[in-house]
Amino acid sequence: MAQLPGLLKGLGITFGTMMRTFKNGSNTVQYPHEKEAPPVRARGVIALHQDNCTSCMLCSRSCPDWCIYIEAHKELAPPRREGGKPRQVNLLDRFDIDYALCMYCGICVEVCPFDALFWSPEYEYSEPNITDMLHDKTKLSEWMETVPEAPALEVGADKKKK
Amino acid sequence: MNTLLGVVIPYWGQSLLRVLGGLVAVLLPAGTIVYVFLFKMMSFMQSRLGPMEAGPYGSLQLVAEVGKWLQKEDIQPTNADKPVFKMAPIIVLMSTFLLVVVVPFGPDAWFTNLETGIFYALAVSSISVLGILMAGWSSANKYSLLGGLRAAGQLIAYELPMVLAVMGVVIQAGTMNLQQIVVAQNAGSIFGINTFGNPYVITQFVGFIVFMIAIQAELTQAPFDMPIAESELVSGYMTEYSGFRFLIFFIGEFATAGVFAMIASTLFLGGWGVPFSWFGWTSMDSVSNWMNIVGPLIVFTKMMVLTFFIMWVRFTYPRFREDQLQRFAWKVLIPVSLVNIMLTAVLKVMF
Amino acid sequence: MTILNDPVSAKLGSRQQLSYIASQAADARLNVELETEGMTLNIGPQHPATHGTLRIIARLDGEQVVWAEPSCGYMHRGYEKLTEVRTFPQVTSLINRIDWLGSFANEVPFILAAEKLMNVEAPPRAQWIRTILFELSRIANVSLFLGDLGVQMGAITPVFLAFRDREYVLNLIESATGGRFHPNFDRIGGLKDDLPAGWIDETKVVMKKLRNFCDEIETLLFGNEIFQSRTRGIGVIPRDVALQYGLSGANLRASGVDWDLRRDQTIPLAYDKVDFKVWTHPDGDSFARCWVRLQETREATKIVDQLLDGIPSGPVMAKVPKIIKVPEGEAWVSTENPLGEMGYYVVSRGDLGPFRVKIRSASFNNISITPWLLRGVYVPDIITILASLYFILGDIDR
Amino acid sequence: MFVNQFLILAAILFCIGVYGVIARKNGVMVLMAIELILNAVNLNLIAFSMRNGSVDGQTFALFVIAVAAAEVGVGLSLVLLIYRNRRTISLDDLSEMKG
Amino acid sequence: MLIAQNIGFAIIAAIMIIGAIRVVTTSNVVHGALWLVVVLAGAAAQYVLLAAEFVAVTQVLVYIGAVMVLFLFGTMLTRSRIGRDSGLNNTYWKLGIPVALALFASMAIALVDSFGSEKMPTDGAIVNTQQISDQIFGPYLLPFWALSFVLLAAVIGAIVLARKD
Lengths: 162, 351, 398, 99, 165
Known about the structure:
Strand content of chain C: 5-15%
Order of helices and strands of chain D: HHH
Order of helices and strands of chain C: HHEEEHHHHHEEHHHHHHEEEHHHH
Distance between the termini of chain C: 37 Å
Distance between the termini of chain D: 53 Å
Number of helices of chain D: 3
Strand order of the largest sheet of chain C: 1-2-3
Structural class of chain D: mainly alpha
Largest interface: D-E, 68 and 86 residues
Shape of chain D: elongated
Oligomer: heteropentamer
Number of strands of chain C: 8
Helix content of chain D: over 70%
Helix content of chain C: 40-55%
Shape of chain C: globular
Number of helices of chain C: 17
Structural class of chain C: mainly alpha
């Protein structure tokens, strides 16, 4: 084998790959028909858990390219306990993420102090029109269904988190 | 070719058959090569599947591609020399059509049976150089001009080893007529063993290798694809072409590959014939009529085998540099084929 | 003197004027020595050989280059300026995009510089994982180079093999960090998260595949006589020239300079815990550069394997305040990135973000040698030399 | 087919070639006109070969083709040399007898 | 069949004459070369009409495949521009017309006078390639050798002339 000229060995490599593809199938998937599952941590789309959001604007401010738009107003809500004072809550009017601008850095998810934002590995939401890439709060809430459980950690990891 | 399978065909019918046959003989190999090798084999060698959507296993992809190219705008650069620019692809494709004319497909299935068949083939194959030079010059693009000049230098340089490689076959067969070369191979014998006839790939192995290398270069396939090197010259002389004219270049490239492979199979692998001893034939006249139907299939099969090697090499190797290519032609291929001719001539005289 | 009084050159700015004068001088030399008319060929800004928008102005005589100059800046995104209006966590997400193929490796020196300013050190487990991801991004980067090398020379298959096996590495990076290309995983004081379960075993399998890929590429490309004839003796950079032009990384080591920041400096990464060989090659030609990179990819898989075996347990994040304010000061940290030495000079005024960041990226310095290197070569060799120098456009035009 | 139809065609080509040699200044164009003349001669040779039923005409035509190829090779290299030295291939500018 | 041949001759001859005139009148060198290709191809076709198959193929191989490619190569190397090129003609180019016409008139008179309406033999022996080779390697061996030396000298001369040093 070592004496063979490199030209012939190279031909062997391509032929071998061809035979392997014949036998074991290709390394690619035929996308619309079969799909590869992205890893659990994959940053596909940001899901919004509306109830947790206090419209504190931290995410909006920490976004490196300012693609999160939040508008809210204050309202009095019935007290939690019987006879308590009515609570003042922030009600979200608008929570938009412009995915045409988003660069999927994940800083917003990380800074959110109330666990209102989550990553979902969903990736099939491209639109022919760039203005449709602006997801409003109902659409962002719909993504919540696709948010997976956080994966178990590798051996030796520090268990306590946050 | 007045009668085909016992049916008398009038002159106009013969002409029509010839034109249709020529179209089939050029376009069918081109389409098959593109689908089987360019789409599928290349993909498998790169561990992917290639086109799968259009038709079963992507078999109609070719139709889609042709449709796409036909729809595209036919862009002509402002500074281009328009008539020359338009003529160039046609001349390249014309060379292919002129080339297929001499390939025999069966005892009676041929377009013309020229006495100087292989000489004619070598002559018309050089016409495509003109088309390429025209394309390179008229595009008003430096990359195109460089590509055209490279192509011309390369094609001229590799025509010589090709001619010299063919010479060995011509000496051994004693004729330039392709039909007779086929008969000589299938009716012949090697050292008295006539089970396999005498395909010249065995006795002219050096010539066969030189011829295959030379047609690889004539077709500007890797590792000799400097004229259209996409990473250097951005497809060279084809840079400015789009739409239908690019399609013609594209068809020309693969059709020429097929036709050259047919010629190579005729010269070295016995062409349309099977060894005559299998069926007890002795000469051209005793060949059965059904070879006219089976013959084209045999040529086609041999053509596919040879194009497989051409494409396999194309998908595997990186390309030479221009001066290395010239050095390879002049210092390796031409001396080797000259020695081959000398040996063949000496052996021919001895035996 | 006629050149300096040329009316055309007078209208141009000083920098263009210089290159105009140089090109005129080249013309004059060309006409005197070779007695033929030259031709200016612009390779790029849109050209497959420059993998991005780099423009190489080459004056040719026939197919021989008489004078060549890279003209960069077509993709300049102003990262140094952008960092001045971002906070430290935001900066990491930006500098991912400098060398987009080995993006995790971009974050490390910046974070290390910030940590140096803050006097924080990441816990050992974080350092090990950082090193593993660093080497993984090196593999992801260089394996693409190995495939792309073939494409630049006309072989179309290696690049698909490279993409096939690089995919495994990218999947690993994605499953650990969440981002395939732009991990944004490094934080001041450690890492964003720990590795997911099963990652180590998976990585070991992938490293085996990658070594197999290296063998394949070695047979398919490096053993190929055509490839060798295209690269051996082409674009030779002698040792002293390489040092003078400030080359770094594999380009420098291929010229015989045994210099690797992974080994030669003490930074809080786990390189001192593993045993690896720094590959050098005495030739300094294109083949040497490619060969050194191939060996480095192999070596990187071995480094990853060793690190995976000895990964310590513990937290991945040191104790740092939630809102990071980096104290006043200046720090310079550079690491051995896939492309060469990449360093950040961070100046902080005690704000949320840096006051000034100077980025020393490897490619920008590496292509500075092209005018010297390309003189006298043939047009096809420009391509092989550029491919073997290996630059990423984002790394040149930051 | 008359014999004359070929001969007169050859004569027309010959005369066009002569006109080209006289009228053209560009060296390459003059070479092309000479090619026209040579082809006219070849056509005559072949026509006579057929008329006389002998092979000699064709043999000579082959010789002429070979010589023409040699002539073009030398002629074009001359033109290239002149172009390289003088930046022009106009034959009128070459009247001076020193290099 | 003879009618077909005559029609073929007429068409090809017309194309050849137009092509030849364009060669000497066009204002672009590359166009001139391409028109010359048309004339040469027409000549090859005429050879086929005259039953000289081998010469026709040689014409295509040598002239179109080699000589014209050389011409185009040379003109492209001397950077001929796309578009009209001034200064291709001499100042006294008009002188060529009467000269050519006079030459043609004298030749035509001589030809008509000597051959009149003589016809080509229709049953003449078809010359095959073997006969040509027998001629070349038989009685014409010495000219063939001389020609080989001419070609060799031309090759060496061309190389000597084109070399830079």
